[in-house]
Amino acid sequence: MKLIVNGQEQDIKAASVLELLDHFVLKPKQVVVELNKVIIKREAFAHQSVKENDQIEIVTVVGGG
């Protein structure tokens, strides 16, 4: 299915936000996900479905000091 991920159209096989993160080998605790301009809570990643032409922004959280 075609998804817009961080501004780029990609063909990805994923039914949920969690599967999408698995596709990119990203850990849920290290990212913030915005789906169609709505921030998705981490506990909802497994249940939040993605569909054709969804716009998704994935931001990696980096700690430091």
Based on secondary structure, the structural category is mainly beta
CATH topology descriptor: Ubiquitin-like (UB roll)
CATH class: Alpha Beta
Averaging pLDDT over every residue, what do you get?
A: 95
Summarize this structure briefly.
With 65 residues, the chain is mainly beta. It has one helix spanning 17-23; strands at 2-5, 8-11, 31-35, 38-40, 55-60.
List the main descriptive attributes of the protein structure presented here.
65 residues, mainly beta, Ubiquitin-like (UB roll), 5-stranded mixed beta sheet, 1 helix, 5 strands
Word description of this protein:
The chain has one helix spanning 17-23; strands at 2-5, 8-11, 31-35, 38-40, 55-60. The chain is mainly beta and 65 residues long. The protein has a single domain (2-60), classed as Beta-grasp domain (Ubiquitin-like (UB roll)). Strands 2-1-5-3-4 form a 5-stranded mixed β-sheet, with no helix packed on it. A hairpin with a 2-residue loop joins strand 1 (2-5) and strand 2 (8-11). The model has no long low-confidence stretch (mean pLDDT 95).
